[in-house]
Amino acid sequence: MLHLQPLTESKPFIDSAVNCKHILENSDHYLIEIKRIDKGEIFEQRQWLKVNKDLTEVKLLTLTAIDSSREIEERFFNEGFLKFNNRTGIFIEKFNSSQHHYQNNRQELEVILTPFLNEYFFGTKSLVN
């Protein structure tokens, strides 16, 4: 099962242009929701990434819809569907219905992944055009 808790709005990386909102992991990948402070529209600000564990491959998931309530969060992507609450959740791939389970390890991973994400989006080795 996917276990996650949203990050607080406090910003441990003051000069960061990317704020991690949710960070999930399994044995192969991280699933990360980020907020890019350089973007204006909600679908540009909030982006979901699937990153392999050795940080060599990053896939931007195409967010198409958001549904939120006090109990359940849902994210719809061209690639699949994510449904989660503050304890559990699941990502189901669109084309083959594979189910992926993640664990929340936010506090440790934020320290590791935020510098990587800033380099990915804005650094000299940026992979984004």
Q: What is the topological layout?
A:
Elements: E1 18-25, E2 29-36, H1 42-45, E3 46-52, E4 58-61, E5 63-68, E6 73-77, E7 80-84, E8 89-93, E9 99-100, E10 103-104, H2 106-122
Antiparallel strand pairs: 1-2, 1-10, 2-3, 3-4, 5-6, 6-7, 7-8, 8-9
The total strand number stands at 10
Q: Which strand-content bin applies to the residues?
A: 35-45%
Query: Number of domains in the coordinates?
Result: 1
Summed over residues and divided by their number, the pLDDT gives a mean of 76
Largest sheet: 5 strands, antiparallel
Rg:
14 Å
Q: Name the shape in a single word.
A: globular
Short account of what is shown:
The chain has 129 residues and is of the alpha+beta class. It has 2 helices and 10 strands.
Give an account of the 3D structure.
The structure is a single chain. This protein has 129 residues and is of the alpha+beta class. The protein contains two helices and ten strands; from the N terminus they run E-E-H-E-E-E-E-E-E-E-E-H. The chain has helices at residues 42-45, 106-122; strands spanning 18-25, 29-36, 46-52, 58-61, 63-68, 73-77, 80-84, 89-93, 99-100, 103-104. The longest helix is centred in the C-terminal third of the chain and has 17 residues, at 106-122. It is globular. The relative contact order is 0.24. Mean pLDDT is 76; it is low at 1-15.
